[in-house]
């Protein structure tokens, strides 16, 4: 399950946030200390529930020991990544770990190329230092703590870059945590990786290398605790700053709880999300939960020759070190429940989560509510030992919310997981139209009446695109067909919640037609041209768009068909975007499809293609995907500006012949030569039986597809005679997730969803 969850996590991170301010080059400069949120512990605090093992370890953290380490690192003069002493420094750090009694210590080297002074420089080898405490019961579950050890100083980092606060302080903290754990003979249940990163200052190279390596080798990194600049506190304030990352805010809350519980410090959350200024960013980019501690009073000596130990508050650094140590240790006793997912189908809502081999974990509890923020009630009578739960609500088309806890044999429960939601898919209603009520000097009523006219006898429900927060999963589960129509130039992007809901919608065979100006702005937050989209982008995965381009003042008077089954779409001359060019549209995006996409419409201009006015001539403006898993049509011009008769014919054709029955409800009327039955067991972990019935001799294809439309297993492909068949499907090579079984003959097609849980 963790690989499936991480893929979805990465998809959401890069699909909807691509091109945003989050995708910046590293800049660990000062953020606005006024743009913060003060953490308020629930229940009035946690001081009464101290774990004696944690207390014993952190009580041995010593300011003098931390001071000695910072002084030694400062005495190198510089730890700049381009200087030849970098391996000497890494070796000294490794030897410190070894001197504490750690036996699994390694220099993890990597080749680094960096842009320095406008020139790409081969800096040869860099060296991360990785010290590992292997878990007793769950060695494959990894918790990372650390920070970078390199330094930088203006104007000449080659000769002097003391970097006492940035970041000898965090290097010393990590070494001190290793020292006290070893001195206490502490044996974690899960693996703790104490990692000190090279080459942070010019681009987070060390952490990005380490995180990418962990991802590519399939390491189960459950948590990354980053420390950076934790020793500046001239006024002896009692605050520490925590940076949060989207989709794993819980990681920062865990840190806040531990700091409030085990130290004298108060927690302040930065409102600068997804900080690109330190090594936690590299882990987050690769789908690993991360958080980041920093001093509240940002040092005025940052990257200056004055960043020396005399300007550090070592006792303050030691207190943050205690909080970091308590954070990582707390996850050994009642780890945060991770990987919670809700898979919605027409049969049930499958709640699944990551397993843990931690011997201190006794089981799981699951809670359900009809409201996101309240009313949660436990649904299981006894602790759950499995890592999934099948819920069959009594009502379809309604959204239900779920969260879980981990429990030990003392009845203690972990912090609640994040909330997920699901709905029984029924596809009972006809058509959902998500449309923009604003355009260019057009009244909302005229837009609405236009779509009433072109949809003719097809009944539909209308939602204004500016109210897309209403598109909960319960709503989407009632409609198999969605028309997404935007007339103005969109200035906002969908939320990650909408992305999650649409993911479930498409996973259950939903169909969508998109027709709007600048659609990549909304669906990929794109604002530059030309731009290519990787397969992780939502726009690529579901709308089959590989790349986009645009010429602002290139004019289209019609979209001509590139597929035989479509008719020309003429721009209505009565609806002018600009009086100088009646009956023409401009600012139209053009696409290149992925291998799975098909071009259905192309840009048609009345002007010479060698001029800007006609430059986009012949380029694709409409792409379709008619898969067995879902169907989409993506067009870069609003139907509102198309001739009414042309738009009406298009929608009738799409709803009737492309998306199925114009009522929006799939039809299986007529005699069938086969019937696909539900597999058993479902969900399954290793293999499942897929039964089907053949009523007359026919050629049968039975295959299993991923949600990306890839054929992962061809089970049958031959002529079969009348009878009842049971085919065994073994899933030993596949990751956890939702798959689709497709049974196909020359005149019949049946599909069913199956759930694989490791």
CATH class categorisation of the largest domain: Alpha Beta
The stretches of 5 or more residues where confidence is low (pLDDT under 50) are 1-27, 43-48, 662-671
Structural class assignment: alpha+beta
CATH topology of the largest domain: Aminopeptidase
- Overall shape: it is globular
What portion of the residues fall into strands of 2 or more residues?
A: 25-35%
How are the strands of the biggest sheet laid out side by side? 1-8-7-9-6-4-5-3-2
Radius of gyration: 29 Å
Known CATH architecture of the largest domain: 3-Layer(aba) Sandwich
* Largest sheet entry: 9 strands, mixed
Please bin the fraction of helical residues.
10-25%
Q: Report how far apart the termini are.
A: 6 Å
**Average of per-residue pLDDT values:** 87
> What would you give as the CATH superfamily of the largest domain?
Zn peptidases
Tags for this entry?
about 750 residues; alpha+beta; Aminopeptidase; Immunoglobulin-like; Rossmann fold; 4 domains; 9-stranded mixed sheet; 15 helices; 35 strands; about 25% helix; about 30% strand; globular; disordered N terminus
Describe, in plain words, how this protein is organized in 3D.
The N and C termini lie close together (6 Å). This protein folds into four domains: 49-333, Aminopeptidase; 341-422, Immunoglobulins (Immunoglobulin-like, Sandwich), CATH 2.60.40.10; 432-658, 3-Layer(aba) Sandwich (Rossmann fold); 674-756, Immunoglobulin-like (Sandwich), CATH 2.60.40.1930. With 758 residues, it is an alpha+beta fold. The protein is globular, with a radius of gyration of 29 Å. Strand 2 (105-116) and strand 3 form a beta hairpin. A nine-stranded mixed β-sheet has the order 1-8-7-9-6-4-5-3-2, sandwiched between helices. The chain is built from 15 helices and 35 strands.
């Amino acid at each position: 399950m963790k690989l499936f969850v991480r893929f979805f996590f990465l998809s959401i991170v890069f699909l909807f946030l691509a091109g945003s301010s989050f995708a910046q080059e590293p800049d660990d400069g000062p953020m606005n200390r006024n743009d913060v949120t003060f953490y308020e512990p629930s229940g009035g605090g946690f001081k009464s529930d101290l774990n004696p093992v944690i207390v014993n370890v952190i009580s041995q953290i010593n300011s003098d020991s931390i001071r000695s380490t910072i002084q030694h690192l400062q005495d190198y003069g510089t730890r700049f990544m381009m200087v030849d002493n970098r391996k000497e420094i890494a070796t000294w750090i490794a030897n410190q770990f070894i001197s504490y009694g750690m036996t699994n210590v390694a220099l993890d080297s990597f080749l680094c190329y960096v842009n320095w002074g406008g020139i790409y420089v081969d800096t040869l080898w860099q060296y991360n230092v990785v010290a590992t405490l292997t878990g007793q019961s769950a060695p494959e579950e990894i918790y990372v703590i650390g920070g970078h050890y390199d330094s930088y100083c203006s104007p000449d980092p080659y000769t002097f870059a003391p970097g006492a606060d940035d970041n000898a302080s965090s290097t010393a903290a990590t070494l001190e945590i290793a020292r006290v754990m070893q001195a206490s003979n502490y044996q974690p249940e899960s693996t703790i990786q104490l990692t000190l990163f090279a080459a942070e200052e010019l681009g987070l190279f060390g952490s990005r290398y380490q995180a990418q390596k962990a991802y590519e080798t399939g390491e189960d990194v459950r948590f990354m605790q980053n420390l950076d600049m934790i020793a500046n506190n001239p006024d002896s304030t009692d605050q520490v700053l925590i940076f949060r990352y989207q989709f794993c805010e819980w990681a920062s809350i865990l840190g806040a709880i531990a700091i409030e519980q085990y130290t004298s410090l108060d927690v302040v959350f930065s409102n600068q999300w997804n900080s690109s200024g330190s090594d936690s960013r590299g882990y987050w980019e690769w789908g690993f939960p991360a958080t980041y501690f920093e001093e509240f009073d940002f040092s005025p000596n940052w990257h200056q020759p004055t960043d020396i130990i005399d300007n550090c508050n070592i006792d303050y650094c030691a207190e943050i070190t205690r909080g970091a140590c308590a954070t990582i240790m707390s996850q050994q006793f009642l780890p945060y429940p991770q990987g919670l997912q809700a898979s919605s189908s027409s049969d049930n809502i499958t709640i699944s989560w990551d397993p843990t081999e931690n011997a201190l974990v006794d089981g799981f509890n699951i809670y359900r509510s009809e409201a996101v923020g309240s009313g949660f009630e436990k649904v299981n009578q006894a602790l759950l030992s499995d890592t999934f739960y099948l819920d069959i609500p009594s009502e379809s088309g309604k959204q239900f919310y779920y969260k879980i806890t981990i429990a030990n044999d003392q009845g203690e429960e972990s912090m609640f997981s994040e909330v997920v939601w699901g709905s029984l898919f029924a596809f009972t209603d006809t058509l959902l139209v998500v449309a923009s009520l604003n355009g260019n000097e057009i009244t909302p009523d005229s837009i609405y009446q236009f779509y009433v006219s072109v949809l003719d006898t097809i009944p539909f429900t209308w939602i204004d695109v500016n109210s897309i927060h209403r598109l909960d999963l319960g709503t989407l589960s009632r409609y198999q067909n969605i028309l997404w129509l935007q007339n103005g130039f969109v200035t906002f992007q969908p939320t990650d919640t909408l992305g999650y809901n649409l993911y479930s919608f498409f996973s259950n065979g939903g169909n969508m037609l998109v027709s709007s100006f600048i659609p990549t702005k909304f669906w990929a937050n794109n604002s530059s041209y030309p731009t290519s989209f990787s397969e992780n982008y939502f726009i690529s995965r579901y709308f089959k768009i590989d790349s986009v381009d645009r010429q602002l003042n290139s004019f289209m008077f019609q979209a001509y068909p590139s597929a035989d089954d479509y008719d020309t779409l003429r721009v209505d001359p009565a609806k002018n975007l600009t009086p100088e060019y009646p009956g023409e549209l401009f600012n139209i995006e053009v696409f290149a499809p992925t291998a799975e996409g098909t071009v259905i419409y192309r840009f048609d201009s009345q002007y010479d293609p060698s001029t800007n006015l006609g430059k986009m001539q012949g380029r694709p403006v409409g792409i379709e995907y008619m898969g067995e898993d879902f169907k989409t049509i993506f067009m870069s011009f609003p139907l509102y500006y198309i001739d009414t008769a042309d738009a009406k014919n298009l929608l009738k054709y799409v709803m009737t012949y492309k998306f199925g029955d114009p009522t929006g409800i799939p039809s299986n009327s007529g005699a069938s030569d086969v019937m696909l039955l539900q597999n058993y067991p479902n969900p399954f972990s290793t293999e499942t039986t897929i039964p089907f019935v053949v009523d007359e001799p026919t050629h049968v294809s039975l295959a299993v597809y991923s949600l990306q439309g890839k054929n992962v297993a061809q089970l049958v492909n031959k002529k079969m005679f009348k009878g009842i068949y049971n085919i065994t499907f073994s899933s030993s090579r596949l990751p956890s997730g939702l798959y689709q079984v497709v049974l196909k003959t020359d005149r019949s097609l049946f599909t069913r969803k199956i759930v694989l849980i490791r």
